[in-house]
Design brief:
The protein contains four helices and four strands. By secondary structure, it is an alpha+beta fold. The longest helix has 19 residues. InterPro entries: ThiI_fer, THUMP_dom, tRNA_sulfurtransferase_ThiI.
């Protein structure tokens, strides 16, 4: 299971040194809160987001709920990594996932 965490806008407008320090603090806060749910949790810092990977699928709702209570997080995106070979393969997998939501809708 993978979560991509988007930073609060106040963090993104800071200078590089302040931004890196705030992201490091936020990453530490995420580790401290989530270590109770999964000991093998991986938290990876990037320039514009933070990646959280956990192995225990049973804790998905608890982890997502805990992430919503951490200051400095703007959005939490649940991601399902799916391998693909080409653009048509992406289309087929997306269609299988979203067919009912898109039925009867138009692009324009």
């Amino acid at each position: 299971m993978k979560f991509i965490i988007k930073l609060f806008p106040e963090i993104t407008i800071k200078s590089q040194s302040v931004r890196l320090r705030f992201i490091k603090i936020l990453t530490g806060n995420i580790r401290n809160v989530l270590k109770h749910y999964d000991e093998t949790l991986a938290v990876v810092r990037h320039w514009d987001n933070i990646e959280v990977r956990a192995k225990d699928e049973n804790q998905r709702l608890a982890i997502r709920d805990a992430l919503t209570r951490i200051p400095g997080i703007h959005h939490i995106l649940e991601v399902e990594d799916v391998p693909f070979t080409d653009m048509h393969d992406i289309f087929e997998k997306a269609l299988a996932q979203y067919r009912e939501q898109l039925e009867g809708k138009t692009f324009c």
